[in-house]
Specification:
Number of helices: 10
Strand content: under 5%
Distance between the termini: 42 Å
Number of strands: 0
Shape: globular
Structural class: mainly alpha
């Protein structure tokens, strides 16, 4: 019963945001620096309830407040929403989640490998944005990774992506050359991080 109520509230907020997305966008793009502090809790809210895509919001923050404050706002929202979702699933649905994973032998085996190297696995998953962030968060919450390890890995792993979002938002309309360079550098970083992760993962998956 409690789960159904929470899900209803979640979808009601999403529906409200969807039908008011144009007003939200107008409000975001027209306000000045006086609402800087309010953007931090708003970023957490958008991370939990993506009434507009978080990447779009992150780019707007970079354009409005510059790469430093924009990145700080984006990191706060991305990390804060991930931590809240982690705690919600960990203390509400971990047992049910473990029972579900146990039904699938290969997935259960993968979970065992993940849990032996949880901090590094979460860190690289955040650095390589291939898997959707909520999937990483929910899967981590179901596993036995500690709250501290998850928080540190997520906090560190979110930094590069949030920096790129805010920098692109700050530069995309003013300096297209820097925008292209930023994209290329970030793509190279992701490629290197992926190769390092694959090299680290190979011997471990055989254990």
């Amino acid at each position: 019963m409690k789960t159904r109520i929470l899900l209803c509230i979640y979808f009601l907020v999403l529906i409200f945001g969807f039908f008011n997305s144009s007003r939200i966008m107008s409000w975001l793009t027209n306000q000045d620096m006086t609402l800087l502090l309010f953007m931090f809790p708003l970023s957490v809210f958008i991370g939990l309830f993506p009434v507009i895509p978080f990447g779009l919001f992150a780019g707007i923050m970079g354009a409005k407040y510059g790469p430093f404050w924009g990145a700080f706002i984006n990191w706060t929202g991305s990390f804060g929403s991930a931590l809240l979702m982690f705690l919600y699933v960990r203390y509400g649905y971990q047992k049910k989640g473990r029972e579900f994973l146990a039904r699938f032998q290969q997935l259960d085996r993968f979970t065992g490998v993940f849990e032996r190297n949880a901090f590094i696995a979460v860190l690289f998953a955040r650095l390589i944005p291939i898997i959707p962030s909520p999937v990483i968060t929910i899967y981590s919450a179901i596993s036995i990774i500690s709250v501290l390890s998850f928080s540190l890995a997520t906090a560190i792993g979110k930094i590069p992506t949030m920096l790129v979002y805010s920098f692109l938002g700050d530069q995309v309309f003013t300096d297209y050359r820097r925008t292209i360079i930023t994209v290329l550098v970030y793509a190279s970083f992701i490629g290197i991080a992926y190769l390092v992760y694959r090299r680290w993962q190979s011997p471990n998956t055989k254990k």
